[in-house]
Amino acid sequence: MRKRPGPSYSAKANCIFVVESDEVVRSALSFILDHNVTSGFASLGQAIAETPGVTPDVVLLGVGFVQNNGEDLLAEVARHWPGVKILIVANSSNDRLACAGLKWGAHDVLGRPITFEGVRGKVDAVLADQTISPALLSLLPLSAAW
Question: CB–CB of 25/62 below 8 Å?
């Protein structure tokens, strides 16, 4: 019998937004990331409208949102929440659209199958990485770099 891994609580709970149109996937990711302050949204517009003044540490973004105007969408995420880490949730870590998202500013791809270890590992790795994606860096004014 498999046991659910115990929570890996940290001193500071991170704020994570799960933006995924599939309610089952959104709920599963929110449940797995329950050791953080996690909020699920069906669209990016809903996330922005319902969380004024809140800046997440990580946004898990469903690959379906990247399908149309993905570059503009990722730029909008970066402008609205500067410094946020973006994970694209896709069917596979080799998904063509998700890999394009990496060029457009996403930090990593979370491929299926969705497991506790996989999701928490990716989120922890992205949170530990203090670098800014080169595509996101190009959106910042020069004064922000100094």
Answer: yes
Q: How far is Cα 105 from Cα 107, in angstroms, rounded to an integer?
A: 6
Here the tokens at position 131 are 């670098």
Do the beta carbons of residue 54 and residue 73 sit within 8 Å? no
CB 3 within 8 Å of CB 25? no
Domain-located, residue 123: yes
pLDDT at 139 over 90: no
Which two tokens mark 42? Answer: 């069906």
Q: Judge whether residue 102 has pLDDT over 70.
A: yes
Can you give the pLDDT at residue 129?
77
Return the CATH number at 41: 3.40.50.2300
- In a domain, residue 5? The reply is no
Structural domain count, the chain: 1
Per the structure, the complete domain to which residue 32 belongs is given by: 15-145
- 128 closest CA partner among 6, 14, 43, 5: 14
Among 9-13, 45-49, 97-101, 119-123, the least confident range: 9-13
